[in-house]
Design a protein that fits this description.
Number of helices: 17
Strand order of the largest sheet: 14-11-13-12-16-17-15
Shape: globular
Radius of gyration: 23 Å
CATH topology of the largest domain: Alpha-Beta Plaits
């Protein structure tokens, strides 16, 4: 790296004081990850206004050998947007790139900047009578660029797929400052590799996404939200298959929550209560939606589904939300599982996936194995049954020092959980990304051929290793 002062002077001349700061107070909130697990330092924080400014800045960084860590809403779960402690990297915020183009209602698509906040995208789509079918708890801070970089998932993957399925086109700045411009979507395009897919899920290590064209779907005319009690996770899986057969694409979400997690949420949330009068070992949260074409018959279809499921012995009890307020209350119970468990004490939280059909048996086997190997812990699996995404949390024994436990036994637990999911043919990261949290585990457990292919791509596109160093592949 050349002289820092020379680089900063050139960057300031390029971006102006609005686009570059070295003020420690301004930078401080962006140098710690959302979970508070990783803390870093930065040479400066740049906020380019558009793609041209970012491209010029990246060329300047390449000339001076300055590493770049790109960041959106700083709401990631794996430390993927936090620089290391050396202070050598430039933190690049994409938040100023927040333009949303007029929605193409006929094409059901929209082009927007990487800094657009997910909630603002939802509102823009809704104003045009459409919706962007990806949502998550951090929708008020997560940005389009971050969602693309991590291939975000959420609760609607069952019907609409992850971010990878919703991106029609991408614009990105590569490590040499060149611009990959592929915003125009084509239904068919056989000109070699689908290069935009390399960037989706690459966590800013291959290029910095600046804009995207995204797929939209018709607005919901009605939805039915059901809370059901079932005897086991296997029974929940049977109920899922029954619902898929009966409802087809109208089935948009199918979440599972064990009784222990529901109890923790009810103790944590003021005024919260279990939706069903009697206790059940497991609970399923089911969302069914319809646009204008199917709204009139949706309530009857859901009632028929529950009646046939009762008759088949697939559930013990169920209630349909009476209105939107109750529907949101049901979802709030599900979305509060993680904070409720954190409030109980330290825990190791794992974001895993296994083949969908294997999820019930995996959860049972993993709980038994971890609790036997690490006495005093409590293992809990919950999440997106429809796409096999298990949020597998292991709560610490009562009375331990959280930091000491996480650094010692907690790390051993994480390795054991990752070994188990690998043996089951699954993934150690379903939707949160690798970042720095799981980097070493990916290198330990990843397929050598796949890792070699990824390293070859990284070397070809970023030969100096300047884009998000220390993340994903290291």
């Amino acid at each position: 790296m050349t002289d820092r002062a020379d680089f900063l002077a050139a960057a300031l001349a390029l971006l102006s004081p609005r686009g570059l700061t070295t003020d420690a107070e301004i930078m401080a909130p962006w140098l710690t990850d959302w979970r508070g697990r990783y803390h870093g330092a930065a040479l400066a924080m740049a906020s380019p206004a558009d793609t041209a400014e970012l491209a010029a800045l990246v060329r300047l960084c390449a000339a001076h050998g300055v590493p770049i860590v790109a960041q959106g809403g700083n709401s990631g779960m794996s430390g993927g947007a936090t620089p290391n402690a050396s202070g050598a990297a430039l933190l690049v915020s994409l938040r100023r790139m927040s333009t949303i183009a007029p929605v193409d209602r006929d094409g059901r698509q929209v082009t927007c900047g990487a800094g657009v906040v997910l909630q603002n995208l939802h509102e823009a789509a809704a104003a045009a009578g459409l919706r962007f079918p990806l949502t998550l708890g951090g929708k008020g801070s997560a940005t389009v660029g971050g969602l693309i970089a991590t291939n975000a998932g959420g609760t609607q993957v069952l019907r609409h797929g992850s971010m990878r399925a919703l991106v029609l086109g991408v614009e990105a700045v590569l490590a040499d400052g060149s611009v990959f411009a592929a915003l125009t979507p084509l239904k068919k395009d056989n000109r070699g590799f689908d290069l935009k897919q390399l960037l989706i899920g690459s966590e800013g290590t291959l290029g910095i996404v600046t804009a995207a064209t995204l797929r939209l779907v018709p607005a919901m005319a009605d939805r039915q939200v059901v809370w059901a009690g079932v005897a086991s996770l296997q029974a929940a899986r049977a109920l899922l298959l029954h619902a898929e057969a009966a409802l087809g694409e109208a089935l948009e979400g199918f979440e599972v929550v064990p009784s222990a997690s529901l109890a923790a949420v009810c103790a944590y949330l003021p005024g919260a209560r279990a939706p069903l009068a009697a206790p059940h070992p497991w609970h399923a949260l089911i969302e069914v939606v319809a646009d204008d074409d199917g709204a009139d018959t949706l309530p009857e279809r859901v009632e028929a589904l529950l009646a046939s499921a009762f008759e088949a012995g697939l559930l013990g009890d169920a209630v349909i939300a009476a209105n939107e307020t109750q529907a949101e209350a049901f979802w709030n119970l599900r979305e509060s599982v993680s904070p409720a468990e954190r409030a109980k004490g330290p825990a190791m939280q794992h974001d895993l996936s296994v083949p969908v059909a294997a999820m019930p048996d995996f959860v049972d086997a993993a709980i038994a194995a971890i609790e036997a190997r690490f006495p005093g812990t409590q293992a809990i699996g919950f999440g997106h049954l429809g796409d096999g995404n298990v949020h597998f949390h292991v709560l610490a024994p009562a009375g331990v020092d959280g930091q000491v436990w996480e650094a010692g036994e907690g790390k051993a637990i994480a390795r054991a959980v990752h070994d188990l999911v690998t043996q089951w043919g699954g993934s150690i990261s379903a939707e949160h990304g690798i970042g720095q949290l799981k980097r070493d585990e990916l290198l330990r457990l990843g397929d050598p051929t796949a890792l070699a292919m990824m390293r070859a791509v990284k070397t070809a596109l970023d030969p100096q290793g300047l884009l998000n160093p220390g993340k994903l592949l290291g």
